[in-house]
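Deliverable D4.2, example record:
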Amino acid sequence: MSDSSSSSPARIESRKADHLDLCAKGDVAFRQKTNLLEAVDFIHDALPDLALDDVDLSVEFAGKRLAAPLVIAAMTGGVDRAEAINRDLASVAQELGIGFAFGSQRPLLTHGITAGYRVRDVAPDALVLGNIGVVQAGRTPPQRLAELVEDCGADALVVHLNPAMELVQPQGDDDFRGGLDTIAALVAALPVPVIVKETGCGLSRSVGMRIASVGVKWVDTSGAGGTSWVGVETQRAAQRRALLGETFWDWGIPTAASIAQLSGLGLGICATGGLRNGLDVARALALGAICGGIARPFLQAHAAGGRDGVRALAQTVIDQLRITCLLTACRRPDELARRPLVIADALARWVPAGSPLADRLLRSLANRPDAG
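Output generated by the structure prediction step:
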């Protein structure tokens, strides 16, 4: 189903431009499935005994300290328009002490296309995440990927898994053998952390266990409920692939469910997939994530208001998260994961039996006013 023409520079740049247009303006959201973060509710504390300035939002992710648990998640690169976008996004990450992730760096790896992949001069201290697909990583010597990381100044390399997207993408890959071996080799060879992420379909407990077994310590859920990358590729596809895409548009594990699935596996989780505000980030942290990532809303904010629009959105998200912490009497974001929660059945059925999250839910149920 794939051919060599799919990796030509012109075709790659065309695909990246299509992705930008569709994500900024297109109808590419999941149609019926949500990320299930709405199934998480906090118990309000009217006596928090805190001032807003008492809340310290700093966390550590992938070996780097963040001033707030927020990442401007992977979106773009490899096309001229990405240059200004990524530099603006990265400079906001630098200013506010949050993270920034490149979109796929396949254009840089295979054709030396640098557009959008040079941001260290505007973000010298920010957490910057590289990004390559597991199929491309499997075809590349680890030393070349180490050079890629060094070339763009990344603090970690995200290896993305995207079989559903690839199977719908015109000239996409259809052979996903050897992925775990590829990840294991990178963990052993690279001088920076390896982060494994999905691309809109979420990570299951089984996948979490397999990648943890080869030394992966960091993951990005990229769950269902936000942008459907199957949907993006469906709108680019024709005939048979478009029909396949219509069927699998809503395929995947909701973001909140993916966080729940990974509970207790010792993985540091960045939750992405349909997060839109600081309350969503707080809900993800309450389920066990370390930080949350937002992608499409930042791209739309940039389209509407440039760097100022991105900064305003990022600051609002941080403010919303800080307020959520105060209203639940949390001085630090990690305390959200120790507060009682109300979780709807639609999410509760995804929680693995015997996991720390399951135990916490049982305690919450035991403390209900009507218990017993």
